[in-house]
Design goal:
heterodimer, A: about 190 residues, mainly alpha, 6 helices, B: about 100 residues, alpha+beta, three-stranded antiparallel β-sheet, 5 helices
């Protein structure tokens, strides 16, 4: 019979430690990589969709607000990405995340440009759905059920708002879409410690 | 039977290796991030890292990011293999215990 150096209870305890640490590490990577972006883009959505509701869909003021917010959002995202890249260094991991979102941005812009949505709400719907596609696929990439599940939940909210509350769609997106992004970012920051 | 590893089995070292193993192959983790996650002191972490480095399970690289000194830790292929073996040994211990007939 084989002699083991430790008791089965100790082995079980060690496996539990391994499982907890792996979960903690994944949370740390996802939290570090995503919570800042969720908070940032949550604020962008609240301000962007909120201003569209109050300034009027397609109005020059609302377009200007979106343009400024999007450019600022991209610049701050790049700064956050650069700042975070010194926590985990990897030949392919960091650049892969950056290229993923760059590809996402290019393809979303191309599709919206060529699909020519007929109304401002349809444009908002398309961009929001693509944003959630980005979150769901990021969740798969990071192996985070929370992130993917969160993306699916917001997608459902977007579709409900579009189908049943078209007159309030932008306010709905500001409050529930942007609010949920902020809530998820805060949850990751403080609950996943 | 898979190899039970006494070096890895120490709780702090087990957590260090498990954390590094959860990262993509070749990725390096910042010392401060690891210390924060494990909630250990600088000295304690440094001692365990030295031991793992001596075994060839990890590499420690000291560098500068801007003007700030930074230390990065990465799991070596030998460390990844030893960790996989150790986890398998733990699972075997449990499986063996479950397959034993109940006494009493």
């Amino acid at each position: 019979m084989t002699e083991y150096p430790i008791l089965p209870e100790e082995a079980q305890e060690a496996l539990k430690i391994v499982e907890q640490t792996v979960r903690q590490m994944r949370h740390a990577v996802v939290r570090g990589g995503m919570s800042h972006f969720l908070l940032l883009w949550g604020i962008v959505w609240v301000l962007g969709f909120g201003s569209t509701h109050f300034l009027g869909i397609g109005s020059p003021q609302s377009r200007t607000v979106w343009l400024v917010l999007t450019v600022l959002g991209i610049i701050v995202s790049m700064l956050i990405g650069w700042r975070l890249s010194d926590r985990v260094r990897s030949v392919w991991f960091g650049p892969a995340v950056g290229f993923f979102w760059l590809t996402w941005l290019i393809y979303t812009s191309l599709i919206v440009f060529f699909a020519k949505p007929q109304t401002g709400i349809q444009t908002s719907l398309l961009i929001s759905l693509f944003a959630m596609f980005g979150y769901v696929t990021s969740g798969i990439f990071y192996r985070s059920v929370f992130l993917s599940g969160f993306g699916v939940l917001i997608t459902v909210l977007i579709i409900i708002g579009y189908l049943f509350l078209p007159a309030w769609f932008n306010l709905w997106m500001a409050a529930l879409g942007g609010g949920s992004l902020i809530a998820a970012g805060l949850y990751m920051r403080y609950a996943w410690r | 039977m898979a190899r039970f590893d006494e070096t890895i089995h120490q709780p702090v070292r087990l957590r260090i290796i498990a954390a590094l193993n959860a990262l993509p192959e070749g990725a390096q983790l910042d010392f401060g991030t690891l210390r924060e996650m494990l909630e250990v002191t600088d000295g304690n972490l440094a001692t365990h890292l030295r031991r793992l480095e001596e075994e060839g399970y990890i590499t420690v690289e000291k560098t500068f990011v801007g003007r700030h000194p930074r230390t990065y830790i990465a799991l070596t292929p030998k460390g990844r293999w030893a960790f996989a073996e150790h986890v398998q040994a733990l699972q075997e211990i449990l499986a063996n215990d479950k397959s034993k007939p109940e006494s009493g």
